[in-house]
Amino acid sequence: MTLHIYYRHYNAPNDNKNRPDWFTYEKCYYNLLSSLQSETNNYKINVIYDGVESNWIQNTKHDILYNINAGADFKSFQQTCTIVKNDPLVKDGDLVYFLENDYMHLDGWLDKIIELFSTYRGVEYVSLYDHMDKYFLPMYNNLLSKIFVTPTHHWKSTPSTCGSFILTKELFNQDYDILSTMEGDHNKWLWLNQHKNRSIISPIPGLSTHCMEGLMSPTINWSKV
């Protein structure tokens, strides 16, 4: 089983998201590389670079660099889906990780992913991000989650996630038409659950975080990571 990471990066000089004061895109990418240093499981890093300017990411470690010129988040995701679909290196039984460029990871996350897919049959969508909004937004006051346990971690069901998630190559092929055409993360996950009975699980505590102040995976001091 090989994990194929598709890391979507773009130049964002006018990023208006509420970021922690230590955040940079470079730190997120170098953190990804660092978190994989001790891994014995197989993985490949594919960088999807949306832009034409010279950039630090072009000169750092990766297996394959794809240059695209989508100019918008969903369009770049669509092109990434096409790249995955046509990648001859992605075999049945492999995992695909769609990863945005503003996430930090804890060491050992890949071991835990392999452990999860080895422990349970039929795992569908997996997020490494423990969404903070699920704990305080009124719309989730009555949210119930099923808890899963592996030898080293706990996981829970969750109704939605962002644009960073892991799935098998087989499931990607089955859901390709929806993933590549339906815009809006929340609505897409709800549709997949309602119409195809797809489920998402995420770790508790999180193994990654979306780097947005007030919404980061709880219980972890991400500034130290």
Question: What do you see in this structure?
Answer:
This protein is an alpha/beta fold. The protein has a single domain (2-210), classed as Spore Coat Polysaccharide Biosynthesis Protein SpsA, Chain A. Helix content is 26%, strand content 24%. The strands form three sheets. The chain has a five-stranded mixed sheet. Strands 6-10-8-7 form a four-stranded mixed sheet, with no helix packed on it. The protein is globular and about 45 Å long. The two termini are 28 Å apart. The model has no long low-confidence stretch (mean pLDDT 92).
Short description:
With 225 residues, the protein is α/β, with parallel strands linked by helices. It is 26% helix and 24% strand.
Largest beta-sheet details: 5 strands, mixed
Low-confidence stretches: none
Order of helices and strands: EHEEHEEHEEEEHHEE
Q: What's the shape?
A: globular
What class, by secondary structure content?
alpha/beta
The N- and C-terminal alpha carbons lie at a distance of: 28 Å
Task: Just give the CATH class.
Answer: Alpha Beta
**CATH architecture assignment name:** Alpha-Beta Complex
Nearest-integer average pLDDT: 92
Number of strands: 11
Based on CA atoms alone, the radius of gyration comes out at: 17 Å
Question: What number of structural domains do the residues give?
Answer: 1
Report the helical percentage: 25-40%
Oligomer status: single chain
> What would you give as the CATH superfamily?
Spore Coat Polysaccharide Biosynthesis Protein SpsA, Chain A
* Percentage of residues in strands: 15-25%
Report the total helices: 5
Q: CATH fold name, please?
A: Spore Coat Polysaccharide Biosynthesis Protein SpsA, Chain A
Strand order of the biggest β-sheet: 3-2-1-4-9
